[in-house]
Amino acid sequence: MTRAAVIGAGAWGTALADVLARNGHDVQLWALEEDVVASVNEHHENARFLSGAPLSAALGATSSLKDALRDATLICAATPSQHLRGVLRQARPFLAPRAIICVASKGIERDTLALMSEVVADEAPNHPVVALSGPSFAAEVAARQPTAIVAASVDIISAEAVQDAFSNAHFRIYTHDDVVGVELGGSLKNVMAVAAGIAEGVGLGFNSRAALITRGLAEMSRLGAALGAQPATFAGLAGIGDLVLTCTGSLSRNRAVGLAVGQGATLEEALRGKETVAEGVATTRSALALANREGVEMPLVEMVHRILFDGHSAHTALTELMARELRSEQDA
Question: Does the annotation count 274 as an active-site position?
Answer without folding.
Answer: no
